[in-house]
Structures are given as structure tokens and as C-alpha cells.
């Protein structure tokens, strides 16, 4: 059994990445990212070290402008650190944004197919795989529809199916549920938690919603603001499936929120 | 109660709404044309200028009928339409790769971008003179003017459309593994297609204007009779009726091509993407 699966069952204790039983899927080592130069230089991230185990679900929370999205761009390989090292196993990570970013000229099936076609599959070759993924995100029957005909929640489901179609070992999510209503978000949480367990994919999810982080994550990483660094890590050793209104989820959320408030207040900004 | 009745009435209107809305859309236009004809007829009746200078709608109609019987109308429309179609096609063949290069290669964009934009604002009638000097009064001169008039719109339309691709879609494509040409094929070009179509539409209208300028000025017996030449023969024979006939034909062809080709094309593209189309027609 891999360390990550053990963690998911709430068995493992906190382990620094240097002592990780398996090689971590993602490793950040003293990562620094500075935007601009000279007097106007702003360090978005400064000395961030973080390891994410294979199959682990890590949620990153922090105040606005703490460099959460920068962190994700670095892991995704869309950006490079000013100094430090970023290592990601298993090829290019799949990426999901707050906006589904579906290609409006393609159907739902066409969007899910995109990563496969970019790997060289021909159109229509992957119909069975598309069907399987759409069933996984509970969108069976939506294949021929167009993005503009879908609700916000359905679009994010398509984006999730498309991300999974990439067959990456790592899935990065940048506030993917920030723009959907509460009920839809709850259903999406449920499905994401199920899919992450079923596929054993490694997930890093960035959010400003602490409850979302506690509900979904094996671990919650709290980033401080300006410059962003890891302020504290919280293991979420709670049984799954979880619900946002579980008392244990609420208790841990309150603890993390209190800590987050300290961080935000320390910088005098919200 | 009143609300319920109103809803009931709306529900009953639904089945015939299609015909209803068609009539509704056409009515203001037909009214405008009728008013225009009435004002025209009024000017004729007031006799502000001699009758041969201000022919009435009926005179123009009989001139049109006469030209039609002699086969000039269809002949001139066909000549002009085929010339502009060939010129437009050449403009697309030149403008498309140029637009792609402008979008893809920073050096080309910097070097040619503003030049092409400047060319677009240059009235294409100026190309008649170098065309005549270089190529003489030949079909090539006319084509040259049409291509110079239309190609910049094609190139600019495509380059700008690629540039305006939402960054999110580019990120999505790159995250999904699209690099270089694959990014163009799967993301940038499809995303640019509506803008490209808008560029083509504008290029067609420029091609048609350029063609009329070229046909009006370029004179030769072996050039054949296009609509511009028809208009010019009205000038030479002091035939206002013929001139107005030619102008109305030029207008009609321009509108018809846009309505039958480009308008449905861009509507189709936009509808499939769920883009709201501003109703202009």
C-alpha cells in the first residue's frame, strides 16, 4: 500500500517530505517567485517548500494575493520559479480553473476529447473513453451538447472530465468551484471526492474556502501573504465520505480559519 | 386577471410568431423604400431640374427593362461578380497566410502590421493609376485594384482575431499539451474563426468598392461590360436613367452577396458558439 492511500484512510502521521516512504509526486524546494525587478520587485512566493505524495489530495488556502495561483502555475509548468526547484512526476499535470474554459466551438465530447487528440488520437477514436469519463463526472448523455447550453456546474464537470482525459498523475485545481452556487458546489465536492478516491489521482486544489479545503483534502496547507510561504500545515484525519456540515469538519475549519485570520490581519489586508 | 389574460394571449400567438416576426422585421424597411420612392417622385413632379436630369422611378424602371431585354443587366452583373469573386479569392489566398504570419511571427507583426493597417485605410482607387501604368487597361489592372483593396482586411481580420483569443483558452490548450502548431490547429485558429469571417465580410465589401472604382476608370473595348462600365456609359451618353439603374444594380449585388453568403455564414458560426449576435438586419 502506498503512503498516500494509507494517509487517505487516516492511518499515517505527518511526515516531512525528506522522510516520505514513497517518492512524492510533487516536490517544491525553497521556491521563490519574484515579479518585476528593482524597486518594484514583488515576491509572490518566498521559500516555499512542499511535498505532495502520490495519490494525496492537498488543499492550499490563504488570503487573497498570497501567491496561491502563482504556486499552481509553477507546478503546472506554465511559469518558472525565480529560484528554487519544482519537480513533478508523471508528466504534465492536468489543470482546472475557476472558469471551465471550454472551447466554445466544440461539443462536450469534443472538449473531453481534446487532450486525447493532442496525444495523437483521431477524432472518434476515443468515443468509448469519452463516454466513460462523462459517466464518471455524471454527465452521461451530454456528449453532443455545446458549452453555452450548459449550466456553470455542468461546465466544471466537463472541465474535470477533460482534465482526467489527460491521464496525468497530477490534477491541479485553481478555485474550481468559486463561481458556482452553494448546492451545485456541494454536489461537485461529493463527486470530486469520489473521483479522486476512485482514480487515486494526486490533487492540489487552491481555494479561499476553508471548509471546502477541509472537506476535500487529506492535508490543508496554509499560505501566508506577501511574500507567500507555508505558514502551517493541517492533516485532515477525518473519515470519508465527509460533508461540509460534519461537526469534525466544522471544528477543524474553525481552527484553520482562526489561523488564516491571523495571517491576513498581520498584513493588514483582506 | 389581466395578467392571466395577457399570458393566455401570448401563448396563443406563439405558433404564428415566425411569420409575424418576419412581417414585423420587413415592414419598416418596406416603409422606408416606399417613402424614398415617394420623395423621389415628388422631386420629379416639382420639376426642379429638367426631366432628362431627374428621371422618375418609372423612367428608371423602363431603362432597366430595356437593358434587361438587351441582356446587358445579367451580362454586367455576371462580369462584375465574377471579377470581384476572382479578386476576392486571390485576396483571401494572399491575406490568410500573411495574417497567420503576422499573428505567429513577432518580427512580421512589427514589420508588416502597421503597414497593412495603413494600406487598409488607403482608398483603393489610388491603385488604379499604378495599375494602369504597369498593366495597361486590362483585366489584370482591375484584379490588381480589387486585391489591393481586399487583402489587407483579410490579413488584419485574421491577425487580430488570433491575438484576441481569450488567454484562458490558450492556457487550457497549453495545459492539455498543445504546443506550437498544435496550439494553432486546436485552439488559436478555431478561436479566431469568427473574427476571420468578419474580416472576410469586410474584405468582400472592400473588393466590391474597389472593383467599381476600377471598372469606372479603366476603359477599353476588350474589357467587357461590367456594372462600373455600365455606369460610365450612362455618364458618357448623359443618360441619368441608365446611371441610376447601374447604381441600383451595384447596390443590389453588394447587398445580395452579403445577405446570401456572409450574413448566414457569420450567423451560423456565432449561433453554434452561443455568441449573442447584435441584430443588424
What would you say this structure looks like, in words?
The complex is a heterodimer of chains A (270) and B (281). By secondary structure, chain A is an alpha/beta fold. Helices cover 35% and strands 21% of the residues of chain A. Chain A contains 8 helices and 9 strands. In chain A, the strands form 2 sheets. A 6-stranded mixed sheet of chain A has the order 5-6-7-3-8-9, with helices on both faces. In chain A, strand 8 and strand 9 form a beta hairpin. The longest helix of chain A has 20 residues, at 247-266. Chain A is globular and about 50 Å long. Chain B is mostly helical and 281 residues long. Chain B is 81% helix and 0% strand. Chain B has 11 helices and no strands. In chain B, helix 6 (128-135) packs across helix 7. The longest helix of chain B is centred in the last third of the chain and has 38 residues, at 180-217. Chain B is globular, with a radius of gyration of 24 Å. The chains are: A alpha/beta (270), B mainly alpha (281). The A-B interface holds A 76, 78, 92-95, 97, 99, 101, 103-106, 114-115, 117-119, 146-149, 162, 166 and B 168-169, 171-178, 182, 186-187, 190-191, 193, 272-275.
Amino acid at each position: 500500500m502506498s503512503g498516500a492511500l494509507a494517509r487517505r484512510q487516516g492511518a499515517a502521521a505527518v511526515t516531512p517530505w525528506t522522510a516520505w516512504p514513497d517518492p512524492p509526486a510533487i516536490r517544491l524546494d525553497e521556491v521563490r517567485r519574484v515579479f518585476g525587478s528593482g524597486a518594484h520587485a514583488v515576491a509572490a512566493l518566498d521559500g516555499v517548500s512542499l511535498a505532495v505524495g502520490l495519490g494525496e489530495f492537498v488543499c492550499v488556502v490563504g488570503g487573497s494575493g498570497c501567491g496561491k495561483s502563482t504556486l499552481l502555475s509553477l507546478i503546472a509548468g506554465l511559469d518558472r520559479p525565480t529560484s528554487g526547484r519544482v519537480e513533478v512526476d508523471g508528466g504534465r499535470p492536468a489543470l482546472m480553473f475557476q472558469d471551465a474554459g471550454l472551447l466554445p466551438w466544440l461539443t462536450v465530447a469534443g472538449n473531453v476529447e481534446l487532450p486525447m487528440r493532442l496525444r495523437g488520437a483521431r477524432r472518434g477514436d476515443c468515443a468509448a473513453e469519452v463516454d466513460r469519463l462523462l459517466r464518471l463526472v455524471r454527465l452521461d448523455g451530454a456528449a453532443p451538447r455545446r458549452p453555452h447550453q450548459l449550466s456553470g456546474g455542468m461546465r466544471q464537470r466537463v472541465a474535470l472530465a477533460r482534465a482526467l482525459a489527460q491521464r496525468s498523475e497530477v490534477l491541479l485545481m485553481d478555485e474550481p468551484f468559486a463561481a458556482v452556487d452553494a448546492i451545485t458546489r456541494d454536489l461537485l465536492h461529493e463527486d470530486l471526492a469520489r473521483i479522486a478516491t476512485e482514480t487515486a489521482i494526486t490533487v492540489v486544489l487552491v481555494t479561499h474556502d476553508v471548509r471546502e479545503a477541509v472537506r476535500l483534502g487529506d492535508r490543508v496547507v496554509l499560505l501566508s501573504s506577501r511574500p507567500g510561504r507555508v505558514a502551517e500545515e493541517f492533516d485532515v484525519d477525518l473519515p470519508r465520505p465527509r460533508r461540509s456540515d460534519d461537526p469534525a469538519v466544522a471544528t477543524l475549519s474553525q481552527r484553520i480559519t482562526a489561523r488564516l485570520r491571523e495571517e491576513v490581519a498581520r498584513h493588514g489586508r483582506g | 386577471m389581466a395578467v392571466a389574460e395577457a399570458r393566455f394571449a401570448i401563448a396563443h400567438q406563439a405558433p404564428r410568431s415566425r411569420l409575424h416576426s418576419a412581417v414585423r422585421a420587413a415592414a419598416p424597411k418596406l416603409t422606408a423604400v416606399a417613402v424614398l420612392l415617394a420623395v423621389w417622385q415628388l422631386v420629379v413632379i416639382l420639376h426642379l431640374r429638367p426631366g432628362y436630369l431627374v428621371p422618375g422611378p418609372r423612367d428608371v424602371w423602363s431603362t432597366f427593362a430595356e437593358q434587361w431585354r438587351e441582356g446587358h443587366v445579367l451580362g454586367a452583373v455576371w462580369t462584375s461578380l465574377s471579377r470581384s469573386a476572382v479578386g476576392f479569392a486571390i485576396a483571401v489566398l494572399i491575406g490568410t497566410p500573411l495574417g497567420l504570419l503576422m499573428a505567429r511571427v513577432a518580427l512580421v507583426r512589427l514589420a508588416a502590421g502597421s503597414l497593412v493597417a495603413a494600406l487598409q485605410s488607403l482608398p483603393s482607387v489610388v491603385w488604379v493609376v499604378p495599375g494602369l501604368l504597369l498593366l495597361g487597361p486590362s483585366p489584370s489592372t482591375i484584379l490588381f485594384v480589387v486585391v489591393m483593396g481586399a487583402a489587407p482586411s483579410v490579413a488584419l481580420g485574421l491577425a487580430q482575431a488570433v491575438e484576441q483569443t481569450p488567454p484562458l483558452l490558450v492556457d487550457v490548450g497549453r495545459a492539455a499539451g498543445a504546443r506550437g502548431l498544435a496550439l494553432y490547429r486546436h485552439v488559436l485558429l478555431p478561436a479566431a474563426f469568427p473574427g476571420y469571417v468578419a474580416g472576410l465580410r469586410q474584405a468582400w465589401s472592400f473588393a466590391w468598392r474597389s472593383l467599381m472604382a476600377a471598372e469606372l476608370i479603366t476603359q477599353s473595348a476588350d474589357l467587357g461590360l461590367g456594372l462600373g462600365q455600365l455606369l460610365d456609359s450612362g455618364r458618357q451618353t448623359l443618360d441619368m436613367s441608365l446611371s441610376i439603374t447601374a447604381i441600383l444594380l451595384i447596390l443590389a449585388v453588394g447587398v445580395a452577396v452579403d445577405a446570401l453568403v456572409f450574413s448566414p455564414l457569420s450567423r451560423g458560426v456565432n449561433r453554434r458558439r452561443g455568441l449573442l449576435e447584435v441584430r443588424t438586419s
